[in-house]
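[User] I wish I could look at a protein chain and see how it folds. I have put the entry right below:
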Amino acid sequence: MTTTGGPARAVPAPASGTPAVVLDRSSPVPLYHQLAQQLEAAIEQGVLVPGNLLGNEIDLCVRLGLSRPTVRQAVQALVDKGLVVRRRGVGTQVVHSRVRRPLKLSSLYDDLEAAGQDPATRVIRNEAVPATAEVAAALGVAEGGEVAVLERLRLTHGLPVAVLCNYLPVDLLDLDTGRLESTGLYRMMRAAGITLHSARQTVGARPATREEAARLDEAEGAALLTVRRTAYDDTGRPVEYGTHLYRASRYSFDFHLLVGA
């Protein structure tokens, strides 16, 4: 099959499977990269959703007029990013889209919802506990004093993406478990009249423990992003201290950087 030469042309979408793909055979950009980019964009935009089948490599070659090595290289790029999996006897199947989140003071639930990621929450823990030295320092309370702890599993398209652990002043707001499973914590704060103003945040990484891996559907030792955040309201009062874990295979931060003087 020809893979070079000729102008750009659109390959129409079949009834199911890959969306329309535009291949520019005169471009210096390799065809496998053009294909991988367009399929990734279709997954990110929700044109292809988890469970959709792209077909096997031979089907894709015939459908797109590409050689098998070209299609294999494009599919492998998506496999490496965790966007699709190869299933024997089935073909290539979309698994999920990667969560790209702007680095700002916002609710993960709100960001996922705005991005069309179909967020859902399972509350693992919701109780009052004595504050450890770390939590007490972050929230400005006495060590051993009572604080509320909230632990949640956040999912997108039914698949786990993060474990969120938040500590709050015990009398800050009503942490109703039912509401927490249907909306975001920061949205509940806003509804209670709490105006979030700023936060201090540290991002790191470490391998997953066995328990964390089981919760996040990862292998033990898989890379996890870690986030520690203390959020303040418009009076300067600390209202939340969070220690969060994110699947590095499904989650990343987007930065907007300015050139320094």
Observations:
- The chain is about 25% helix and 35% strand.
- The two ends are 53 Å apart (CA to CA).
